[in-house]
Design a protein that fits this description.
alpha/beta; 8-stranded parallel beta sheet; 4-stranded antiparallel beta sheet; 11 helices; binds N-carbamoyl-L-aspartate; binds zinc ion; pyrimidine biosynthesis; DHOdimr; Dihydroorotase_CS; Metal_Hydrolase; hydrolase
Amino acid sequence: MTTTSATNRPSSITITRPDDWHLHLRDGATIASVLPDTARQFARAIVMPNLKPPVTTTAQAVAYRDRILAALPAGMQFEPLMVLYLTDNTPPEEIQRAKESGVVHAVKLYPAGATTNSDAGVSDLAKCYKTLEMMQKVGMPFLVHGEVTDPAIDIFDREAVFIDRVMKPLRRDMPELKVVFEHITTKDAAQYVAEADQYVGATITAHHLLYNRNELFKGGIRPHYYCLPVLKRELHRQALVAAAISGSKKFFLGTDSAPHAKGLKEHACGCAGCYTALHAMELYTQAFDQADALDKLEQFASFNGPDFYNLPRNTGTITLQREEWQVPAEVPMGNATLVPLNGGETIGWKFV
Ligand SMILES: NC(=O)N[C@@H](CC(=O)O)C(=O)O
Ligand SMILES: [Zn+2]
Ligand SMILES: [Zn+2]
């Protein structure tokens, strides 16, 4: 990492090219609208499989990867890392095929009903044990949307309860399965991951580092700040920042950039997900800068992820400058419009 500064507040930062370890690119015309935003900043991304219908087989993952690469503008370099969507019926042989393909890098748990396009997800992890054993055997990471779906559990407690009800039994039964606790949002999850062994890691989004749940209700209800797991109290945000800047190898960057058309966000029953691919590194840099920890950004954004996934670190670099600019209020998405997080607002770092 290099920084340039006139004072002790650096005016720019250069780090090894980062990767995004949790990304939604969707399908069809949307891919071409959102992919350049990610490919400009990141060398690779773990591409989430919650399409309609979901990406449940290696053959579907290979075809989806081809559609992504076909939408990549000429001259841009980007490698999509594919993920299978686990169902109650995913056979262990599918894991072997995925491993042999060389393009599938993980399998994702969506507890049925937990989030966007999770209806085909897992009803009970006990049904998947043969498949999980195969993943453990071949070294295929298991990415988890870590929230219980029990309607009796308060929405703000669903992640913490997931640790006791799902994570602990899973880790007890499958101790050498690599698990990534995706988009953690609580002090409880940060602490659980920090204290776990080397088989457990976690992604953290920029918006969960920057905002607490007050943001959802500032001056009125603000649907563009609604995502799952939902933003939590300030004490949780502070715990996530502490984890990200701690120097621990277990925490890495995953934007969870999740595009939904404007009309479906600004709606009586609005979709969950924040679009941050447009200005992802700017937001992370802002979060680390606010914590006076710019020197920890490169490890979090560019080293910990590839190390966990046993992939090489990237070789190029990117630079961000301390400079104010206005995030566009809207951008096109296929035939629809997309409102980025912070749309119309001024932010203090700019990708060069
Ligand atoms: N994070 C979200 O709020 N939404 C994601 C799904 C997910 O990652 O849970 C989406 O696909 O829209
Ligand atoms: Zn999720
Ligand atoms: Zn996601």
